[in-house]
Amino acid sequence: MRNWRTALGLVAVVTVLLAMIMPVPAQDPAVRIVAPAHDATPKPAPAIDLFRGVIAVEGKEVPLPVGEWRLAGRAVSAAGEGGPRNVVSVALVRLHDLAVDAAILIQTNRLDSDAAWGKATACDRTDLYFARVRYASDHDGSCAYAAYVDAEVGRHGTDAAWQQALLHGAGNGWRFPSNWIEAAYRITDPRDAMQVRYLFDAPAGADGGPPRPAVRSLVTWTEASWYAVGSGFRNRLGTDDGDGLPDWRQAGAAGAAVALPQAGVEQSRVEHLGAKTVTYRIFGTMTDLSVNYLWLGSLPSAGGLAVVGAVASSALYFVHELVWTRFERPPTLVGDLPGVGVEGPGPGRS
Asked: Using CB atoms within 10 A of its CB, is residue 112 exposed (0-12), middle (13-18) or buried (19+)?
C-alpha cells in the first residue's frame, strides 16, 4: 500500500517540475504590423496590403467586418507619463469606388512595452449612443462604447496612423466622410492592451445626425461583436480568409428583440473575482480531500487536512496580496488615445 502511494507522490512531483520548466510555445501572428521605432511623424504610407476576415497586430488578432480592407497607415508613438510607452497604430480603410465607406483604427502596445493603459473615459460617459464597462482594474479590463465622431478637426489632434491614411488618401483621390458613427473597444490584461475603433459612414437624418434605425443597428452590432474582439485579443480567432464580422447595417433587424444594457452600467469586478475565488476554493478543497484520502486511507484525517489546508492557504494568499500591494509601484495609466476626430453624442442629442 505504501509503495503505490510513494509512486503516486513521485509522479505528482515530476509532473509539477516538468510543467514549471517546459517552455510555452509562442504564437506566430499571421501578420505583424510594426512601424519603425520612435517614428511618429506622419508620412504617406503605400496602401498595398489587403486583408479580409482578420489582421494580426503585435501578436493580437483583430476581426474585420465584411469586405476588403486596405492598409492605409501605421505608426509608433509614445503615450502616458513616467516613461516611454510605445503605442503601435494601424489604420485600415474600405473603399467603394473612391469613397471610404468604413475605416478601422487599431492601437496596441508593442510586444516589449508596458501595457498599463486603464480604461477609456468614454466608457463611463452617459451621453453616447452606448457605453458599458464589463470589468476594470489597473491592468485588466474590457469596455466598449458607440459614438458619433466629428472628423472635421485639425490633424494634430488625431492618431499618427490616421494622419498617414488621410495623406495617402488625398494623393489617391479618396473621399473621406466628414463624420462617422463609431463602435470602439478597449481590452487590457497585465501583459497587453488594445483599442479598436470601427468607423462607418452613415446617411444623415432630419436633424443632421444618423437616423434612429442606423443608431440602433450600430448599438446592436457593438454589443454583438464584443465577444469576437475579445477572442482576437487573446489570439483565439484563427486566420482564415473568411469575413470576421458581419455588416453593421444588418444588426438592427437581427437584434431588434435584444435587450441592451443601459449606458454607464458597470459589472462589479469585486463580485466577479469573489465568485471565481469561491468556485476555485470549492474545487481545490475537493481535490485536496481526494488526494489526502488516497494517501492516508482515512476519511476523517483526509477531511481534517483539507479543511486546515483551505484555511491556511486562503490566509496566506490574503497576506501575500497585502504585502505585494504594499511594495508594488502603482502603474502609470496611459488613459485616452487620439482617434480620428471628436467623439460625442451627435446632432440632436445632449
From this structure: exposed
Express each pLDDT in 308-336 by its tens digit. Answer: 777 777 777 767 666 766 665 555 566 78
- Provide the grid cell at 288: 485536496
Q: For residues 231 and 233, what is the distance between their CA atoms, to the nearest angstrom?
A: 5
pLDDT at 40: 45
Predicted local distance difference test score (pLDDT) of residue 304 = 78
Any residues with CB less than 8 A from the CB of 335 and at least 6 apart, and which?
A: 79, 80, 117, 118, 120, 121
Cell of 254: 437581427
The reported pLDDT for the residue numbered 274 is 55
Distances (CA, A) of 264 to 3, 36, 224, 284, 335: 61, 38, 17, 36, 18
pLDDT per residue over 50-75, tens digit each? Answer: 999 999 999 999 999 999 999 999 99
Measure the CA–CA gap between 350 and 126, rounded to whole angstroms.
10
Single-letter residue type at 231: S
Longest Cα separation, the chain: 84
Burial of 240 (0-12, 13-18, 19+ CB in 10 A): exposed
